[in-house]
Amino acid sequence: MKTLSFLGSPRRNGNTAALLGSVLKGMESAGSTDGDFIFLQDKNIKPCNGCNACKKKDASGCVIKDDMQDIYPLIAKSDLIILATPIYWWSITAQMKLLVDRIYGMDFTCGKKKVALIMTYEGELPNSGPETTETLFREICDYIKADAVAVLGVCTGKVQVKDNQKALDEAFELGRKLAVG
Ligand SMILES: Cc1cc2nc3c(=O)[nH]c(=O)nc-3n(C[C@H](O)[C@H](O)[C@H](O)COP(=O)(O)O)c2cc1C
Question: Model pTM?
Answer without folding.
Answer: 0.97
